[in-house]
Amino acid sequence: MRAIGVDETTKDLQVIDLPTPEPGPGEVRIKVAAAAVNRADLMQRQGLYPPPAGASPIMGLEVSGTVDAVGPGVELEPGDEVCALMAGGGYAEYAIAPAAQCLPVPAGVSLIDAAALPEVACTVYSNIVTEAGLQPGETLLIHGGGSGIGTHGIQLAKALGATVAVTVGSEFKAERCRELGADIVINYREQDYAEVLENRVDVILDIMGAKYLPGNVRALATLGRLVIIGMQGGVEGTLNIATLLGKRGRVSATNLRNRPATGPHSKAEVVAGVRENVWPLVAAGAVRPVVSTRLPLAEAAAAQDLLNSADSVGKVLLTP
Questions:
Q1: Which DSSP category does 210 fall into?
Q2: Do 205 and 229 touch, CB atoms closer than 8 A?
Q3: CA-to-CA distance for 189 and 186, rounded, in angstroms?
C-alpha cells in the first residue's frame, strides 16, 4: 500500500510503499476513503509527539472508509462504512483500528467527510461534557474557534444549550464562527479576551496552555472549570492560586491519544459516549463536520501547511 513517511533528516513528507497491515484480535482493517490532518501530526513530524508504544509510526489519528478485513472477536463485517479514532496510521491507503474505536458513518454525512469527526467529537465531548460537566445555560469559552475542535465545539455546545464564546485571529474566522452559532467572538489581535470575559466563563476549552493560563483563570466564573488540551502557548505558566481559590475553580488537563484502549477513562469508553450522545445530534443536523479542504494523499505536506496557516477553518482531509 501507499503511505506517507517522514524523512528523519529533513522532516520532509514522502510517499512510501509498505506492506498492507493485517488486523489482529479486536481490530479491523479499513480501506481509507479519507484521513484527517491534525496538529498532533505536525508535532509528530517534528519529533515532538511520538506515537504510543505499539502504535503505527505513520501519522494520522482518524480516518473514514470501508471495512476491508476483520480480526477475531469483531462484530463489524467487510463492507461496513465507518469512521475511526486511532493512535496512528491514517496517512495510508489502508489503516488498522480497534473495532471499539469505530463509529458508523452518521446519516447525512458523506463517507469522505466522516473522517472529520472522530477525533474532534471525542476530544470535545470527553472534555466539555465528561470532564467539565457543561450544563445548559452555562458559558463555554473555546480558544481557537476556527480550528477543527473549535468548529465542532461551537455546534455541540449550542446543541447542549450553552452560550459559546470563542477567540480567533482574523475576521474571516470570526465570521465562520458566528455562522456556526458562536455568541461572543473575540479577535485576540484586537481585544483581551480575559478583560472582555472576566468572571463570566463556566468552562474553558484551552489549546494554548501556559501563555493563556493567567487570562483563563481571570475569565473563570465562580466554580469555573478550565480544561487544558494543548501546549501551543508553552508548557510552563504562572497560576494565581489565590484567584483560583477565591473562585473555587478547577484546572485539569487531558490527553486523548495516550488513553488506554479499553477500561475506565479509555478511548473505547469515550467513543461509546460519543456514539450515544453526539451521533444523534450529527444525524439530526445539529452538529455537522466542517471541512476546509480535501487534498490527495500525496499532497500531505501541503495539507499540513494549510492546517498551520490562517486560511483554514475546520478540518483538512487527505483522500488516498
A1: G
A2: yes
A3: 9
Residuewise pLDDT in 10s, the chain (320 residues): 999 999 999 999 999 999 999 999 999 999 999 999 999 999 999 999 999 999 999 999 999 999 999 999 999 999 999 999 999 999 999 999 999 999 999 999 999 999 999 999 999 999 999 999 999 999 999 999 999 999 999 999 999 999 999 999 999 999 999 999 999 999 999 999 999 999 999 999 999 999 999 999 999 999 999 999 999 999 999 999 999 999 999 999 999 998 999 999 999 999 999 999 999 999 999 999 999 999 999 999 999 999 988 889 999 999 99
Residues 234 and 212: beta-carbon distance below 8 Å: no
Residues found in the chain: 320
270 closest CA partner among 6, 62, 112: 62
φ/ψ (deg, to 5) at 89: 105, 5
pTM (predicted TM-score): 0.96
Cell 509527539, residue located:
49
Distance CA 248, CA 101 (A): 36
Count helices and strands in the chain by DSSP H and E runs? 10, 15
Q: Quote the CA–CA distance of 15 and 218 in Å, as a whole number.
A: 47
Q: What gap in Å lies between CA 169 and CA 186, rounded to an integer?
A: 8
DSSP 3-state of 306: helix
